[in-house]
Amino acid sequence: MRARALPSNRYGRFSEDGREYVVTDPRAPRPWSNVIANPRSGLVVSHTGSGFSWIDNSQLAAITRWQQDLVSDRSGKFLYVRDAESGEAWSLSPSPTWAPLERYACRHGLGYTVFETSRGGVAASWTLFADPDETAEIWIVELRDDSGGGRARRLELTATLEWCMGVSPAPRREFGRLFLETWPDEPRRAVFARSHMWDVSSKRWGHWNTSFPFVSGFAAADAASDLQGDKAELLGRYGDWPAPAALSQPRWTRRFGRHEDAVAALRVPVALPAGGTFRTVFVLATGASPDEAASLLDRLGSVSAARASLERVRAGWRERLAAHRVETPDAALDALVNDWVRYQAISARLWGRCGYYQQSGAFGFRDQLQDSQVWLTIDPEKCRAQARLHAAHQFADGSAYHWWHPLTEQGHVTKMTDDRLWLPFVLASYLRETCDLSILGDEAPFLDEGAAPLSEHVLRAFRVSFSKTSPRGIPLIGAGDWNDGLSAMGLEGRGESFWLGHFLAGLLGEWSGIWTRAGRADLAGEFADRRTALVSAINAHGWDGAWYLRGTLDDGTALGSERSARGKIFLNAQTWAVLSDVAPPDRAAACMKAVRERLVTEAGALLLAPAFDAPQSEIGYITRYAPGLRENGGVYTHAAVWAIAAAAKARDTALVGRLLDAIQPATKDPERYWAEPYVLPGNVDGPDSPHHGRGGWTWYTGSAAWLHRIVSEWVLGVRPEWDGLRVDPCLPPEWTSARMTRPWRGATCEIEIARGGAAGVEVDGNAIEGNLVPAPEPGRTLRIAARIP
Ligand code: GLC
């Protein structure tokens, strides 16, 4: 029995299986978007129909133009219909015309979005998605006469987009325009585009002296009566997207070439019999050459090919997410954990590296490594490949890029101190899941010189970190640790980070065990000793009396102390003390009590409190955000999700329940929360903001992959360890049962957790001692039953 069904609100609801979110009122408080991607290309589309498309890098290689304006949200690729008899025109999504619609639904699904509208006796559906394998975006359009008028209709469909073909947002629009070229391809009913200049530096050719390496074509599958390549011709002088002048012009003056303002517009005449239906397809394809793009248009540009592609998209997501599922009394949590956050982590974070609030394109050294943990239970090879990719962005001295751009390989060198350590962190997770030590022998090059197996990459990451320690044994913070915004505390080389101390202490323990298994007893001993020393240094210098300090500034001032005017207590410094077993039991209890009393709000656990209210250059840019926003005293969901794990580890079931409830977007009041109900936001405003409880920065957040992992490993408590699968649930008090199916080292585990009776674990009906289930034979299905009081 479900204690909680899938919630709805005045702007939308979930489909019955939770795999679609249906926006039914276009006046949702903010754009509710979908990030649709395949491993190379994709699009973002909001419920108003705005958005853009990219290939390989959503920032440096945007195919279409988009203006980030979350208030108007009227910028993107649009599809218009015009009744050729009445002359009335509207768009098949609310934007850009905002013509009143008699019916409106925007169904965001895993891998596709559908607009269903009705106006002027025309029922329309417009489906947008990316082919699962090819660098092509496909639109399937269906128009049906539902006027009941009993006569044939003459309509026109006009599909439009504005070419970007390079860096987005174009920093100098009028300059960039001078390099774009468009041309028509009549037989294909297509407009093609390329740019002869790409606003990046290339090692070989220097700045502004290289062409954008892709060509795109936008084609109509059905007879297009008109093609246009120039924006002024399409919109008219001082015209705008809500009412393009060309829609009502019987003939278009075509303009293409290198001297116009590059768009693509395709007009398709539609003869609709009374009560009849018309179906067509538009394809936006991108390749390394015009021929490559053209061949994609030819292959995908039919209704049957497009439908087959859409079916593969849907099947792909179903299969990808099928092997590991949880079932809890909360249907909304299940939909979020099983489907939406994993889709978010894979589609938006790993493939697209893009959201509506952030068009990134880059790989963050720490970010996508953490995200890749989403593959651990379903396709661990992908996590392994991600680890190799990141190792290849490490320098021979052990330090690493903070981020780098695929395609151009531009990278950002900083004095951040934690980035490199996420490589050993993720490798340890991989090893716990798979027990496959061969990963340590995988080779990866260093950025500057040479190549080495991953074990050596890891060792160098540790060694450089060991060398950056304060005289009293605490890791230095440099230009920031996990918290980017603590960017100035340690610029002079003295500021310390206690959070980094916790993180490193946990890693030293893990790797001491890994070195033992890898036959490196010397390292195992060294790491164990280092851990002991670090834990005692943190406990000697990092305890503020009732919680752990966050760090110290270059001048020795403590941050995250009762004595601090602002930023008195930081969440990560407490939760990671618990997660890394740095805190002895009394301190663990005390610091979690401080978390409950000072940081937990109904919107979730705050990253710090109270928020900084004025810039403090000696701390960093975190102090420059308005109070209560993002890291500055907001609920930063990445850290708020870690707090769920810490609460479970501390066996605080009530707190687990509170924090799980707080993180759920679906149950929020949209007038206050604003953000999408189906994916996680990066942050929610804290109490120092007048909008306490308002979500923002949706999609592009590391919390997505983490929420899945933490619900599985800490709430349901099923954690892989070297010698077995730990089954150690910490369910919220009101849950009476939960279930999970997950693959494990070649076997399948079916786990049932029930409350009541004597605690214990049974495997295939036999009680075992303790709660560590030994690794099964590959191919088997294990039935695990856990009882909790
Ligand atoms: C951003 C960064 C991430 C960092 C976090 C906290 O999300 O991408 O790397 O850990 O902020 O500052």
Short description:
The protein contains 17 helices and 46 strands. The protein has 789 residues and is of the alpha+beta class. Alpha-D-glucopyranose is lined by residues 364, 366-367, 482-485, 631, 702.
SSE topology:
Layout lengths: L7 E2 L2 E3 L5 E4 L9 E5 L3 E6 L4 E5 L6 E3 L13 E6 L5 E3 L11 E7 L2 E8 L2 E9 L5 E10 L7 E14 L6 H4 L3 E6 L4 E6 L5 E2 L3 E2 L7 E6 L5 E5 H5 L26 E11 L4 E11 L2 H11 L2 H18 L4 E3 L3 H22 L10 E2 H7 L8 H12 L11 E2 L6 E2 L9 H13 L8 E3 L5 E3 H14 L28 E2 H20 L3 H21 L9 E2 L5 E2 L9 E2 H9 L5 H14 L1 E2 L2 E2 L2 E2 L25 E2 H13 L3 H11 L6 H4 L7 E4 L10 E4 L4 H13 L2 E4 L2 E4 L9 E8 L2 E9 L4 E4 L2 E3 L3 E2 L7 E8 L1
Parallel strand pairs: 42-46
Antiparallel strand pairs: 1-2, 2-3, 3-10, 4-5, 5-6, 7-14, 8-9, 8-14, 10-11, 11-12, 12-13, 13-22, 14-21, 15-16, 16-19, 17-18, 19-22, 20-21, 23-41, 24-25, 25-26, 27-28, 29-30, 30-31, 32-35, 33-34, 36-37, 37-38, 39-40, 40-45, 41-42, 43-44, 43-46
The structure holds alpha-D-glucopyranose.
Alpha-D-glucopyranose binds next to helix 6.
Task: Provide tags for this entry.
single chain, 789 residues, alpha+beta, eleven-stranded antiparallel sheet, six-stranded antiparallel sheet, 17 helices, 46 strands, globular, binds alpha-D-glucopyranose
For the termini, the CA-CA separation is 19 Å
Low-pLDDT runs of 5+ residues are none
Radius of gyration: 27 Å
- Small ligands present: alpha-D-glucopyranose
Helix residue percentage: 25-40%
Structural class: alpha+beta
**Globular, elongated, flat, extended or rod-shaped: what is the shape?**
globular
Biggest beta-sheet profile: 11 strands, antiparallel
What do the pLDDT scores average to?
A: 97
The total count of helices amounts to 17
**How many β-strand stretches?**
46
Strand order, largest beta sheet: 1-2-3-10-11-12-13-22-19-16-15
Beta-strand percent range: 25-35%
